[in-house]
């Protein structure tokens, strides 16, 4: 199999539904976002999928994510704290920069993640 570009997925709010909020790096209580397993499987046909999470900076975080992914049969290529070079990243707390700085502060201040709208 040849080279595949990387797609980065944030964990909380993108793969893990994160409906209970933060419970600690090694406590992941909620179910997956609806349809994410199938989406990742399909994406992995074309891209390397890497999960990047701030949980990974804390003791037990990487192990907890890997255990949770295994529990729900979600297969990825890597779980890490460090953001690798990537084609694109998927994050519930991101703003696409369009090159236009006008109103950027307002866009930041009005931002709400999909599950907090």
Question: What report would you give on this structure?
Answer:
The protein has 117 residues and is an alpha/beta fold. The chain has a single domain, classed as HAD superfamily/HAD-like (Rossmann fold, 3-Layer(aba) Sandwich), CATH 3.40.50. Helix content is 23%, strand content 14%. It has a 4-stranded parallel sheet. The longest helix has 11 residues. The radius of gyration is 15 Å and the shape is globular. The mean pLDDT is 94. This is Polynucleotide kinase. It comes from Halobacillus seohaensis. InterPro entries: HAD-like_sf, HAD_sf.
Summarize this structure briefly.
This is Polynucleotide kinase. The chain is an alpha/beta fold and 117 residues long.
Keywords for this entry:
117 residues; HAD_sf; alpha/beta; 3 helices; HAD-like_sf; Polynucleotide kinase; 23% helix; 4-stranded parallel β-sheet; Rossmann fold; globular
